[in-house]
Design goal:
Blueprint (H helix, E strand, L loop, with lengths): L1 H8 L4 H4 L4 E4 L9 H5 L27 H5 L5 E5 L6 E8 L10 E5 L5 E11 L6 E8 L8 E3 L21 E3 L4 E2 H9 L5 H8 L11 H13 L3 H4 L13 H4 L6
Antiparallel strand pairs: 1-2, 2-3, 3-6, 4-5, 4-7, 5-6, 8-9
Helix pairs in contact: 5-7
């Protein structure tokens, strides 16, 4: 509920919400990340004075195109269209699971905690090269700021078991920043890259905006399995200062800059 309240406080004006789709950034953690800003072609994301700043939207420029959704490594951007119909709102969500739903499917709509809050109809499915798809869900107007995901029943009929898959492989994403799948990671390790540095050089894993905050632990686990040694014996990454971007003014001692 706390996140939902924060989101409601940052929504555009009622007038703007009646004019068409708009993006909602549910990003409330200061980390070095700016893909949403660089992805927007309309200048609708406020320029960052510090790469750790939280993103803000200029709603007079936002068209609700969704490019920022596909670029966000944290899947924290959604597009809301309250003009879809008299009693329905379309919530566009980033989706990185397989199988993808089909237009016309009725699915369980879930909130930020994964709890089912109602039913939704899939009205559009968009695929993108970076494997982050966008699924448009039509939900009751009262759920516009609550629904942030969906649950799709997995059956043989929707293609979930149409091909054999290796355990832990496939479309599972290990490094969101560099779009590296578990399948790619295991192949890299299988090719003889048995240290973190070798994996980094071969795939660019952990070299994106978040600097490995999520993927390094997953990579080290797979390296441990491949080597048959505890993670502690493999040697983890060396963190060198500064651990996050700082201004030139701070480095030279001018704290006012």
């Amino acid at each position: 509920m706390e996140v939902e309240q924060k989101v409601r406080e940052r929504l555009p004006s009622p007038k703007r919400r009646k004019q068409g789709p708009y993006a909602v950034f549910e990003c409330f953690q200061s980390i070095p990340c700016n893909p949403c800003y660089t992805a927007c072609k309309f200048g609708a994301v406020k320029p960052l004075t510090d790469i750790n700043d939280l993103p803000e939207v200029y709603y007079d420029k936002c068209t609700g195109c969704g490019l920022c959704m596909t670029a966000c490594p944290g899947l924290a951007v959604f597009v809301i269209d309250e003009t879809y119909s008299e009693d329905k709102t379309v919530v566009r969500i980033p989706y990185e699971f397989l199988p993808l739903p089909q237009v016309g499917d009725t699915v369980d709509a879930v909130d930020r905690d994964g709890q089912v809050v109602g039913k939704a109809q899939v009205v559009k499915v968009q695929k993108f090269p970076n494997k982050t798809s966008i699924v448009s869900l039509a939900v009751d107007n009262s759920l516009a700021q609550t629904v942030r995901g969906m649950k799709l029943a997995v059956t043989e009929g929707n293609g979930a078991f149409s091909a054999p898959r290796c355990k832990g492989c496939g479309e599972s994403i290990v490094c969101r920043c560099e779009d590296i799948s578990m399948e790619e990671l295991l192949k890299t390790i299988g090719d003889g890259n048995l240290t973190l540095n070798e994996v980094k050089l071969a795939t660019r894993a952990s070299m994106g905006p978040c600097q490995g905050k999520t993927c390094i632990s997953l990579i080290m686990k797979e390296l441990s399995t491949a080597a048959g040694k505890p993670v502690e014996e493999l040697g983890g990454p060396r963190y060198r200062v500064p651990v996050k971007p700082v201004t030139i003014g701070a480095i030279r001692g001018d704290r006012s800059k």
